[in-house]
Design goal:
- By secondary structure, the chain is an all-alpha fold.
- About 75% of the residues lie in helices and about 0% in strands.
- It has helices spanning about 5-30, 35-45, 50-65, 80-105, 115-125, 135-160, 165-195, 205-230, 235-265, 265-270, 275-280, 285-295, 295-305, 315-325, 330-345, 355-370; strands at about 110, 115.
- The protein has a two-stranded antiparallel ribbon with strand order 1-2.
- Helix 3 runs antiparallel to helix 16.
Length: about 375
């Protein structure tokens, strides 16, 4: 099995163990909490585990070995359980963010299945509860996201307690705390961008969209996991600088690819309806670039339709073709390529293990060309 495959298995095992430990606590409170356990477990059974992978390779890049046979060594690698636990905690945090993000966007699906709040809504209807099913689903979804946030912090704390170096544990905690503030602020900036776009000064739309993706996605998806993992290993200033210079542009490329998939992605691969970002009214870099190139009349049409929850298939197709004709897709692809190149340049010759540089290069390639 590949290193990546074994890492994912170890992280999934740690997640399962943690949920096995917490589920009885919920059950002891009331049988009615069963959906919270069930939905949490289902939600955490899938995913690409990018954050876990980057956290692991952040650690490996400063504490690892260039001997591939020793990647998961024994006695000399006593901090590995702590690293795996931290990687699993990042996946719990990611799940919490997705639950809340789907609520904010009123998304119906996630990874090809009903979003968490829709599952709670269905639970309300199936059990014949009183009141509004949608409101119940939204309220329960908020609480599930909060619970996952609490659990992610508990697992993170348990994991860094196992570290042999307490200074490294404190450094990792500081990075984790900063990540949570960044992504929450970025999520707020996202909803501000959707609500305030008519008031954004002409020519600032792209910069505004880039600020959103930097804090909502780029830092928390790649830069922060790398920094957390590197902190676990006691990274030097030079090592941390190289990893940040790699992680931020790659994180931007990661989200720019998501922006393209949100408009043109294959629903069978993304688990979301094609054109979902258009229905949700996402003010992405792609949309900002398209608006900048459109005629005033075409721009007005896009502005009128973007974010309409009742968009028809024909209207979605029309918006897709309008954006394509603007040349915005080519501009975004060029931005993705430039950011990936900048990321790879940052680790070339950096004071990191050769094996980790190879792994990070492969991850960069998979992120930049993925279809889901």
């Amino acid at each position: 099995m590949s290193t990546g495959g074994r890492l994912v298995d170890l992280v999934q095992t740690r997640i399962d163990e943690f949920l096995d430990d917490r589920s009885p606590i919920l059950a002891a409170i009331s049988d009615d909490t069963a959906p919270m356990s069930d939905i949490s477990r289902d939600f955490l059974r899938f995913g690409k585990r990018f954050r876990a992978r980057f956290a692991y390779w952040g650690w490996q890049s400063v504490q690892g070995t260039d001997d591939p046979s020793d990647l998961f060594g024994d006695g000399r690698r006593s901090d590995l359980p702590a690293v795996i636990g931290v990687a699993a905690a990042l996946e719990l945090f990611h799940a919490a963010a997705l639950v809340h993000d789907d609520l904010i966007d009123a998304s119906d699906t996630r990874r090809g299945a009903p979003a968490a709040h829709r599952r709670f809504e269905r639970e309300h209807r199936q059990r014949g509860f009183l009141g509004d099913a949608v409101r119940f689903g939204d309220s329960a979804g908020i609480l599930l996201g909060d619970l996952l946030l609490v659990w992610s912090d508990e697992l993170f704390a348990e994991s860094i307690d196992k570290l042999s170096d307490r200074q490294n544990a404190r450094a990792a905690r500081a990075e984790f705390n900063r990540m949570r503030t960044d992504v929450t602020a970025g999520q707020y900036l996202d909803i501000v961008a959707e609500a305030s776009w008519p008031h954004v000064r002409e020519g600032r739309e792209v910069d505004s969209a880039l600020t959103v993706i930097t804090y909502k996605s780029a830092k928390y998806s790649i830069e922060a996991p790398l920094a957390i993992g590197a902190s676990l290993g006691g990274a030097s200033l030079a090592q941390m600088a190289a990893l940040r210079e790699f992680g931020l542009p790659l994180g931007i490329a990661f989200q720019l690819r998501d922006d393209l998939l949100g408009v043109y992605g294959d629903s069978e691969l993304t688990g979301k309806p094609t054109g979902d970002d258009l229905v949700e009214g996402k003010r992405t870099v792609l949309v900002a670039l398209a608006r900048r190139a459109l005629t005033p009349s075409a721009r007005r049409t896009v502005d009128e339709l973007l974010g309409d929850p009742d968009l028809t298939g024909e209207q979605i197709l029309m918006l897709q073709e309008t954006i394509r004709a603007s040349g915005a897709i080519e501009e975004v692809e060029a931005m993705i390529s430039a950011n990936v190149e900048n990321a790879l340049d940052a680790i070339e010759g950096a004071p990191l293990t050769a094996d980790s540089r190879d792994a990070l290069t492969r991850l960069a390639e998979s992120i930049s060309v993925r279809a889901s």
